[in-house]
Amino acid sequence: MTGLIRPYGDTTGDGMVQLSFTLPIEHSKVAEGAAVQLANKMGMDPALVVHAKPMGEGFTFFVVYGRVNHLVDPSTVEVVERDYPLLTPKEANAAIKRSMRRRLVVVGGCIGTDAHTVGIDAILNIKGFAGEKGLEYYRELKVVNLGAQVSVPQLVEAAREEKADAVLVSQVVTQRDAHLLNTREMSAAFREAYPAAKRPLLVVGGPRFDETMADELGVDRVFSRGTTPGEVASFIVHRLTNRSAS
């Protein structure tokens, strides 16, 4: 797709959009007026509240429908396209066995104060996510899941002890950009602890990460929301088996 477009594909007139949000105010006509005011300030004009529902004491959820005249240019959008093939577990196992002649070791966990293990467990645990088995299912992978609230020194120590080929870190807590600070601390620690050629592959993921920030954060790959175990496994296997072959 090229050229400027409007919401809902309208290239000739103003586009219509639907927006949902919650305000810290009791449901009332005043609250609905406040929702319209907010929508107006965000560029929707006119704006119409099509749904409003109390969300506990002192909060109201709104759905607002309205017209915007902003243009978007897809040619300026920056995304990280997948540059490796998706492998089935059988294909991944075969590639590891052929190229490395040993099991590939993956160490993972949630660093800092982050106690949310849902993301790392979805990728590592055998039950997996989105209908795909986790990395524990792969016969040629040895997976060490350190769980939650792992300090960076503990992560580095575990990686060295297990002779990790790849380190996976999940971050959900994002207050004051904690996920970015923790990732930079982690990547700096691995650079200090390992010669460049021996450093394990560093992979981070979480719902608030920007996938274009891998170089800035000092890691090899950033995965955002919706990533499946197969995507992570395929990336690790592709990168490490190619490294072994070179």
Automatic annotation (TrEMBL):
Domain B12-binding: start-end pairs: 103-246
EC number: 5.4.3.3
GO terms, molecular function: cobalamin binding; D-lysine 5,6-aminomutase activity; metal ion binding; protein dimerization activity
Enzyme class: isomerase
SUPFAM superfamilies cross-referenced by the UniProt entry: Cobalamin (vitamin B12)-binding domain, D-lysine 5,6-aminomutase beta subunit KamE, N-terminal domain
Keywords: Isomerase
InterPro entries in the cross-refs: Cobalamin-bd, Cobalamin-bd_sf, KamE_N, KamE_N_sf
Domain of life assignment: Bacteria
Protein name per Swiss-Prot or TrEMBL: Beta-lysine 5,6-aminomutase beta subunit
Organism: Nocardioides cavernae
